[in-house]
Amino acid sequence: MEAKNLSIFSSRKSKSVTERTAAIILRICAIMSIVAVASITIYMVISGTPALFSQGFADILFNPVWNPTGKNPEFGILYIIITSIFGVAAAIVIGVPIGLLTAVYLSEIAQPRARTVVRSAVELLAGIPSVIYGLLGILIINPVMYDIERALFANDPNHQMTGGSNLLSAILVLAIMILPTLINISQTALEAVPDNFRKSSLALGASKIQTIFKVVIPAARNGILSAIVLGVGRAIGEAMAIVLVSGNSVNFPTPFASVRFLTTGIVTDFAYATGVHLDVLYTIGLVLFVFIIVINIVLTKVVKAGVANGK
């Protein structure tokens, strides 16, 4: 009897120690996450603001002229900012419907064999390095865009041919790159919807398609919005693939113009930039960081509003 008591007390003591240890480890991990975010924020603010004060907010943020190596250097990033906003927005407009409908097919419609094949293809897309997307863009998308460009602007002497390296090519590459994130997270959100929702809708006389679009998708709204947030983050932070297919020239973002994104601007100039030029590149990084924060805050509020309305 005494041995059993000792064993019971020993087990309780061991369990208590394990729980306290696990709590400490989890707390440390949480603190490290906070420290990492705070450190990045402080570093970006310290590194990105000197150029704003030395050159002026308007001369950097609202000036369309980017000529850092000229006799009278200009560091305007207005066109670069507009390009990033327009390019990411267009990629999301293209990618979200395709990704969501693919997720619906995988979770609600596909037979097991077809589901396995499509899911394997999506997982393969997720594992492809960014530079490979860029190379595929050069080999496949850019030639097609160039053929279209020549057909549209053959008699336009004012148009400068880009060889297919333009904004439209970059948008298509971005749309393809964000598909794995959108599909995987949206599919998880759809599969998390209880089957009772589907059965109740079908029992009330709704068709399968009506059940999917009127019941299942609204119930998975928050997870789908999270997929969009991560997709936006992937698109706005991409550099290597985009620098290969966008032409990387600072122009107003028209579909067949060679353009430069915020990320590609940093990648292109960082190796040789010095002085104010280097400071402005850090400012571009700060602008990019602010964009991501604003997008996360806005979409988080949208999710919370959706939860409140659902209640």
Description:
Helices cover 78% and strands 1% of the residues. The protein has 311 residues and is mainly alpha-helical. It folds into 2 domains: 1-53; 56-310, MetI-like (MetI-like fold). A two-stranded antiparallel sheet has the order 1-2. A hairpin with a 6-residue loop joins strand 1 and strand 2 (74-75). It is globular. It starts with a helix and ends with a helix.
Features:
single chain; 311 residues; MetI-like fold; globular
What is shown here, in short?
This protein has 311 residues and is an all-alpha fold. The protein has helices at residues 2-55, 57-61, 78-109, 112-127, 130-153, 167-191, 195-203, 208-219, 221-237, 240-245, 262-269, 275-310, and strands spanning 66-67, 74-75.
Question: Helicity range of the residues?
Answer: over 70%
Q: Based on the structure given, which CATH architecture of the largest domain is correct?
A: Orthogonal Bundle
Would you report the number of β strands? Answer: 2
What's the quaternary structure here?
A: single chain
User: What gap, in angstroms, lies between the N and C termini?
Assistant: 54 Å
* Structural class computed from helices and strand pairing: mainly alpha
Overall morphology: globular
Instruction: Write out the strand line-up for the largest beta sheet, numbering strands in chain order.
Output: 1-2
The CATH topology of the largest domain corresponds to MetI-like fold
The CATH class assignment of the largest domain is Mainly Alpha
What is the helix tally? 12
> Low-confidence parts, pLDDT < 50 over ≥5 residues?
1-6
Q: What is the CATH homologous superfamily assignment of the largest domain?
A: MetI-like
Q: What is the H-and-E element order?
A: HHEEHHHHHHHHHH
Radius of gyration over C-alpha positions, nearest whole angstrom: 25 Å
Arithmetic mean of pLDDT: 87
Structural domain count? 2
Strand percent estimate: under 5%
